Amino acid sequence: MDKFVIEGPRTLSGSLTVGGSKNTALPLMAAAVLAEGTTRVTNVPDLRDVHTLSKVIRVTGPDVTVRPDEHAIEINASTVDEPVAPYELVKKMRASFYMLGALVGRCGRARVSLPGGCAWGPRPVDLHIEGMKQFGAEIELDEGYVVAKATGGRLSGGTFRMEPSSVGATVNLLLGAVTARGGSKIENAAMEPDVVAFGEALKKMGAQIDGLGTRTIEIQGVDALTPIEVRNTPDRIEMGTFMILAAMAGEPGEPFEINNGNHEHLGQAFKDYFRGTGAETKYTDEGAVVTPPETVTPVSIRTETYPGFPTDLQAQWTVMLATADGEATVTDTIYDDRFKHVPELQRLGIDVTVDGNAATVRGGQPIKGAQVMSTDLRASVSLVMAGIVASGRTDVLRIYHLDRGYENLATKLRSAGANIERQQYDEFAEPERKA
Ligand code: EPU
């Protein structure tokens, strides 16, 4: 297995560059399955999740060519003849469940493994399934698989109100509804920029969709979609991660550039909270320039659906609060148990406690290097950020979680002045006896 070895504390300077969005690339890849012919997606990050979905798509028939050097992916979906997403792959990545909508939309039937739980809780898919039923699919559960069939090979269309609003269910229902025989309506739909960019791509493929970026999306089914070439959006979570890192580990008073990001995708809440930390920020066409404060002002946040503060940035915010002057709270209203990073942060000396769905951080305590364990993607990047400001050596174990969503993180961070190396290690090695 691989780990990061970080020597700190280090002050970062210069710039960091944002890659393509993971959470937009995945639905764009699923969309390609709907159209006969080759769809090419560019600005695709070279990430484990992208490779996992490529494998899932290949199982169903298409040729998938990943071109990491070009950050591009080509999906030739001329043939989709095995509408199955097997457990072995779906269990590795929940977004594989997008194959339900993609395969029902393309073939009128699908057999897709249920994803199971995730590191921080059950994360159900009931809305995906109920929505599909409302749009006309017959659904059965068979040995851990969702088996969906649309009479006559196409969904009929319908209306579905989701509660709570779900990114994944909105994507899945759009995938199914764009080729339905009739019209469909999704109420309380997700407004996240990832969903909007994906919906815009579907429109470019010939889908008829109104209301993207609002809570009500209406779809009029069409007979078939055509393949396209589409550029993926920048990763808003990577951008937010780098901004938080700049505020907590950058040289106070020295501008730090975040390049290739789209600040509009951050959402207003993040920008407002971020301003409260004392980091001066100039948003540009290229991304953002963050001038770190002498000491971060503690700001309590609450995660919400877009344009609220993203849950995918709360672990990073928690670490920044450890460097702040005072106490603040991080409340997650999307996932009430997403705090697996907290016991690891405590190992570094950070004064943080969890009560229900909120973590309270009392900043200003010395942060000291230690061995810590990654539990999920965003938790692991928060540990890396803590390692950069900690004194001494921090080993972040099991970074395969991090490889799911941050491309070349160590190389990027080194270019900004971090002392971070990737090393292989034996997870099961016995500790050595110290003489
Ligand atoms: N929910 C249900 N039933 C469902 C679906 C969702 O109750 O059928 C609930 C969830 O338990 C949660 C809420 O609805 O409380 C919102 O979950 P959502 O479905 O929006 O999440 P998701 O689609 O599974 C995506 C991102 C996540 C991100 C969430 C929230 C992708 C591939 N994943 O997940 O990203 O945290 O939206 O914004 O887009 C990450 O990148 O690290 C990551 C986990």
What would the average pLDDT be, to the nearest integer? 97
The Rg value, from CA coordinates, equals 22 Å
Percent of residues in helices comes to 25-40%
Bound molecules: uridine-diphosphate-2(N-acetylglucosaminyl) butyric acid
Q: If strands are numbered along the chain, what order do they take across the biggest sheet?
A: 22-23-1-24
Number of helices: 13
Tell me, what's the shape?
globular
The class by helix and strand makeup works out as alpha/beta
User: How many runs of DSSP E, i.e. beta strands?
Assistant: 24
Task: Tell me what you see in this structure.
- There is one protein chain.
- The chain is α/β, with parallel strands linked by helices and 435 residues long.
- 29% of the residues lie in helices and 25% in strands.
- The strands form six sheets. Strands 22-23-1-24 form a four-stranded mixed beta sheet.
- The chain is globular and about 70 Å long.
- The two termini are 27 Å apart.
- The mean pLDDT is 97.
- Bound molecules: uridine-diphosphate-2(N-acetylglucosaminyl) butyric acid.
